[in-house]
Structures are given as structure tokens and as C-alpha cells.
Amino acid sequence: MTPEEIQSRVLHRDASVLVIDKPAGLAVHAGRAGDEHLGLYLDALRFGLPRSPELAHRLDRDTSGCLVLGRHRRALARLGEIFAHGEANKVYWAIVVGRPREEEGLIELPLKKREAKFGWRMDVEERGGLPSATRWRLLGGDGRLSWLECQPLTGRTHQIRAHCAAIGHPLVGDAIYGRGTGTLAGDRLALHARAVSLPFQPNRPPLSITAPVPEHLRTLLTGCGWAGENAPTP
């Protein structure tokens, strides 16, 4: 990715906050030596400031959409408070297997990290798991797949993926929780951080940012009833 390409993905920029449209497949932190990650491109997002911006939260490697960064230490501290206290309103779009019986619901299942021989995952664990809650709403479907709006009320790793799988509707393309659903959409995880709202400054309206639907999800969403960027959300 060139500096111009990462700059073209900026959705919001002010003196304190940047929000970028993270592409699916780009890790936010360095992993194995030689792997591409967002840290390689942060210098291109300084826009005249002496320091590169830093992450205020995280997105999984295969999740696309709104990623928030702070442009200086005070901004990072304020954003840290917002995310830690659950004040950030995050909206994700997910394509899941099957159709839920209800039109909306609240998943409250504690999650615990499990180490395994070939990696790790988050499992529902009543004893020892961390409290986790995800609100969801059915936006559309084609009988085989469903389009969900998910709002994580807590910030656990893999929360939406683990919760949807736990109620019997794993995300399309999820190699960890999807039980082989990758064949339904190639190797791409069908999860998009669609929007975020941040009450950054007291007595001012929240910052509200929306990320466009990425190309790899357009066909799936259209099949589930999405009418395009200019159409209102159901």
C-alpha cells in the first residue's frame, strides 16, 4: 500500500482524531516477520503533526471498516476513556449462516480465551468467562444467509464472531468459528465495521463516521436486500 492509498482511506480527520477505512486482510499490529500491517503506514497519516497517530482500539485482521486513531497523547487518553467506559457506539454489519427466529435480540454470554495447538479462540464460558453482550438486529436475508446489524456493548476480542456462532449463526467466511462456511464466500470474513459514534468533546454532537461497503461484501449484501450506499438502512 502506498502513502497515497492509505491517505485515501481516511474517513474523518480533525486536530485530534483520525478514522480510517481499514481494508480486510490488513493486521493492525505487527505479527510474523515480513507480514504487512498498519504500523508500516502510520507515518503517512501524520498530516503535518510531529508524531504518527496511534490506535485507539482494534479490529481483527479480516474485519474491514471504521478504525479510530488518536493524533496526540491527549486525544489518545480521551479516546481510551470513551472506549473503556463503553461510550463509543459501534455498528457492525455481518452476513451469517441461516436466519434467526427473532427479528432482534441481545446475546449475553461470557467469553474466555482458549489456547489450542493450532491457535486460540474465544469460547463461551459461564465460569471464568468475561461478561460480554452483543445487541443484534435482522436487516435482511435470502433464506440461506442473513444480514445482521450488530452492536457490541462490551469490547471482547472476536466478540461478534463468537456470539453469532454460539447462537447457531456463524459468520460467513469465518475460519475459526464458521464450521466450514468459508466456501460460501471464498476466504473473506463477512464482517464490516460500518459506523462509529464518539462523544469526543463535551457539549458538542458526537463524531459520527460511516465506512463504505467494501467490494468483497457487496454481492453478499445485495443478495440479502441491501439496496446500495444511498438507500436508507432497513
Automatic annotation (TrEMBL):
It is an enzyme of class 5 (isomerase). GO terms for molecular function: catalytic activity, acting on RNA; pseudouridine synthase activity; RNA binding. Keywords: Isomerase. Residues 17-166 form the Pseudouridine synthase RsuA/RluA-like domain. It comes from the Bacteria. Pfam families: PseudoU_synth_2. One of its GO terms (biological process) is enzyme-directed rRNA pseudouridine synthesis. Signal peptide: none annotated. Its EC number is 5.4.99.-. The keyword Transcription regulation does not apply. Belongs to the pseudouridine synthase RluA family. This is Putative enzyme. It comes from Magnetospirillum molischianum DSM 120.
